[in-house]
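DUF3149 domain-containing protein
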Amino acid sequence: MNVFFRDFFTDPVLFLSFGILGVVIALCLYYVYYFVKKINEAEVPK
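Predicted structure tokens:
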């Protein structure tokens, strides 16, 4: 397991891949929260 962490912090391709993947997942979670919040606060026309 120690080798994985050493490679993770020394290999820029691996580091950037996980970093960009983390940013994409964070954006997806933000937009899910945003749309669910807007749907719950929306007024239903009668």
